[in-house]
Every structure is written in C-alpha cells, then in structure tokens.
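Hi C.,

You asked whether I'd gotten around to modeling the 488-residue construct. I have! Everything is below, sequence then structure, no commentary in between.
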Amino acid sequence: SQNNNRGGYNVGSLYYYEGERVPLEWTNQHGCGNEYNDCQIVIQYMCSDNLRDGVTTRTIPDTPANCLNQDCNTDVRYGMHESYDYYINCKFRFRNQGLFTADQQLRGQTAKYTRQNPNGQRRGYECPEERDHYPYWHPTPWVDLAIFTNDASRCDFYRAQSENVVGRHFCNLPNSWYHHMVGRTSDRTGFIPNTAAGCEQLNDPGSNMVTFLKSEKANSHAALAAQVQEEFDACLESVKYCYDNALDNTTLQTCVAEWSTGKTITLTQLETQCPVCKAGFQLKVEVSGSCPICVPDDCVASSVNSTVTVSPSGEQVNYTCPDTYILDPYDFSLCVKANCPDRYLSSAEIHDEVDKCRASKISETSHLVDSTGICVKRPIIDRECALEGIEKAFWTLSQPHSAVYPHVAAPQCLEADWSRPNHLGNGVGGFTNGWNLTYPSYEHERCAVRIRYNITTTDYIGMDPHDSGMVNATFNRDSSTAVSKLPI
C-alpha cells in the first residue's frame, strides 16, 4: 500500500520472539514480476533504542529547539525510525548528480531532493535519495532481509553489494565545522561532499573549512596563552605578600619557604605527572624545524639508519630503506616499519589532554615554580604547531552491518512473484503476495520493518535514459489539446 489518504494497512506495536516466523503480505499498485515494468521489492529492518511510534501524527521536528530538552531523538511525543543526525546529514549532503530526474525541476542540490521528491518534502527522518534508490551508496541504519526482482540475474550483484556485507563511504567532517555549517547553510545548496575528491578538497590550504578551523584554533591558543599568563601573574601576586610584609631577610626566607611548601608545584613535578607523551610513546624533539611528536616505543626500538647516497655532482642526496621499512617522515636519516608513521601523535593531537592535566595540577596546588622556587609560566604548544594540527575531513569507509551485528549475512534474493498492474497489484487469483520473515536473533526491543517498491515502467520508450527527448512526464497528458504521445 502507498498509505494514500490513510488508506494503508497500518499496524501498531507488536511483540515477537527471537526466531519466530512472521508472515508478511503486501500489494504493490503497479505490479511486479510481469512484462510491464522493471521492479524490485526490498524488505529491510532497523533497530534502535529510540525507535518508537509516538503519540501524535505530527511530523517529528527537524529543529531541536522544537523538541523537549532540545533533543528530538528522545522526544517520545513523536514517532521516529531514522535518527535526527542521519536526516541532517542527508539534508546537507550533496545529491548524486548522475541520477535520473526526468523533466522534474529539483528545488535543491542536496540528497533530500529527488525526481520523486523535487520539492524536498520531509517524511520523518528518512532520506529521500536513499528511499528512492537501491542499493544506496552512503551508510544507512537499514539491514536487508530479502530482495525480490523481476531479473534474477541481478541477485549476485544485490547480495554482494548489500550494506549487510559491504561498508559504505562517507565524508567524515570535523565536528566544529559540521555544526558551524549546519547553522549557516541552506539545505538547497548543502555543504557535505558525496565523493572522495570533494571530501579531500575541503583540506586544501585555502578552503573555507581550513580557514575556519585555523581561526578557531588560533582563538583557542590565544585563550590558552591568556590563561597561562593569569596563572603566572597570580603566582607573582601570591609570593609578593612575603616581600611586602617581611621584617628582614630571615622572615622573608621563612615566608617564601612556607609559601613554596604549601602552595606550589615545580615544573619538573608537573612534567612528570602530566608528560607530553603517554605511556608507550617517546617524545621526538631532535628533528629541526618540526613540531614535537610522540613516537611508539616499538617504532623507536625497531628503527634503523637509512642508506645515504650522493650523486656525482653532489647536488642530490638519496635516502633508501630495507624491505618492509620506509623513511621516517620527520627524519630521513632513519627508517621505520611501514605501519609506524600512521601511529605517530603530533603535538597538536596531544596538547589538549596535556594542557587540561597541567592546568588541573596547578589549580590544585595554586602555583608553578622552577627548582629554585621562582614563578614560571606553564609550557604550552607553539602557536604555529597548534595551527598545523587542525582536524581534517576524511573519506571514510563505514563498517558493514555484519561487523556490528554478527547475525547479519547477505540478504535472500529471489525472482519476484507475478502481480498485476493496478487493482492493488494483487497476485495470482487476486490474492496478496507474501514472504515469511524469521525474526532476527538480535537482542533488541525496538525494531521496525519496511517494504520498498521500486519500478520503472516499460510502457514507453523513455525507459532509455540516454534518450532525453522521450523522458518527459508531459507525454502522459490526456486531454483534447494534449493527448498522450505514448502507445499505452
């Protein structure tokens, strides 16, 4: 059913046991398994802690301010399948420009606009582009159960490409950039790339994302420097009491000694309690011109010297490494195991945690001093090193559903049973077609099943997407002034 005018066969919440066989029946308006169309019927399910029916027929808001506690995912007044974040990513992700749109004028360039949804209308948190195309190319929460097709030769493809067994790529954006753009971008234009090339372009030195992140990092570093200065000034102000109130040198020294014992931590103690590199890593500082990095102990232990050769003219120096080794990207005089550089931690990656640790220690003991008891400033990352460490966008491969849910395997794929066009698409003898679903062995109380019905009719030449002259909905007009041009 298409649920037209509440005419669908809606069913409320039901309870099933794991492994129970549940008969599914459906009708598909335009038929399937016949000579009149090219069709797929896809049965899927998803589970989520927040999946629910809700208590109102109103559509769940896509603005958190309109939900209880600013969280639409947990506002139980509204029914919900996909999550708020899933829809927002779809809402601002560029649509696939290679999809068939016929003569429809899509009102935007994001994945919420499709041939069947040209005005971007929203239905819950489903992604229109994902709903209208299978198999979809970005991560979804929907697990495939079964696929029925009029062309069974496609079954090997459907099973091999199901998200059940093959992960999906997506552009993984820095959180601050993502949230910054969500509040400032039209959903008609979007900002989330849907290709690897587009994702990598965000990391170009002059891109808007890099400019924003560097500005954000510079502001953060300035705030950190100001905090360190405040700590230093407070230290000086505290010890100043001894100098202002000392009667003689003896009382001054006594006061300073008491102050040092009860209200200070030495720089050596601070660096011991909050080291730059965590356990299992060593600080690499001897490389000229680079910011400090933390290198895994095993990479240091297994490193070897590179072989240096100089050209006869002396103008070119070559560094080479033994098999299974590569040049250390920070020091060409060394060769390291091939998997080591990806495990290095830059100073920008580690400084936030280190700074928080050191700030808390100074707060607990009040003031930082050197070995002689003189107030000193807490060391922090250089500004330029901080700016080098901005986050990047990554074209990321998600896990397939089977990696998250061990019970999931490739879906069943079968040739679709015959059903007639129109008359609800009933099957042979006017009966509904169906399939027995075995409830998955997945320990979750909240799950939903959906049936997707995709067709392309064969009653006009416009099925050829390369013949744009025939792909036009106006050919279907039937009136005295514009009769149908198709041999229906």
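If it helps when you're writing up: The longest strand covers residues 37-47.

Thanks,
B.
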